[in-house]
Amino acid sequence: MSERTPVHPAIARWQEQIRNEIQEHLVFIYAKGEKNLAVCGFSHRAMEIFNRLGVDYEVRNVLADPYIRPALCALTDWPTIPQVFIGGKFIGGCDIVSQMYETGELQREIERARQERAARQGTR
After folding, report:
1. Measured between alpha carbons, how far is 49 from 81 in angstroms, rounded to an integer?
2. 56-112: per-residue pLDDT in tens?
3. 82 phi and psi angles, rounded to 5 deg
4. Cβ 51 vs Cβ 103: under 8 Å
5. Is the pLDDT reported for residue 124 higher than 90?
6. In this structure, what DSSP letter does residue 60 have?
């Protein structure tokens, strides 16, 4: 029987916060920096894509607290930042979001998430 390493309480709190944030917002980006003020080129690129699409999104600066990034990476099993969620679903990082944008798949994913959200809220 293997023993699990206990999760630091701060990481557990951040994981709960992350779960809430990605459910509350259609698009959520965990980035290095603030909304429209990225301190990393990859984070800037991800935000710029959503700006071009005119899609509202929220950002959490992973540099603001030393426990955010480990909590996030443990949930997604993805080591790099930014991390983009649409409709509560982990999409990927900058490269994946960029590829999806170029093919139109990102726009379709956003629309699918909007429709699912509207159906859950009982509005169309």
Report:
1. 15
2. 999 999 999 999 999 999 999 999 999 999 999 999 999 999 999 999 999 999 999
3. -80, 165
4. no
5. no
6. E
Assess whether the previous peptide bond of 9 is cis (omega < 30° from 0): no
Gap between the Cα atoms of 115 and 50, Å rounded = 18
SS3 of the chain: helix, strand, coil, percent, to 5: 50, 15, 30
DSSP state of 78: -
Amino acid sitting at position 94: C
* pTM reported for the whole predicted model: 0.92
**CA distances for 105 relative to 54, 96, 99, 109, angstroms:** 16, 10, 8, 6
Model confidence band, residue 3 (pLDDT cutoffs 50, 70, 90): low
Give 46's DSSP letter: H
According to DSSP, the residues that pair with 60 across neighbouring strands are: 30
Q: How many CB atoms lie within 10 A of CB 108?
A: 11
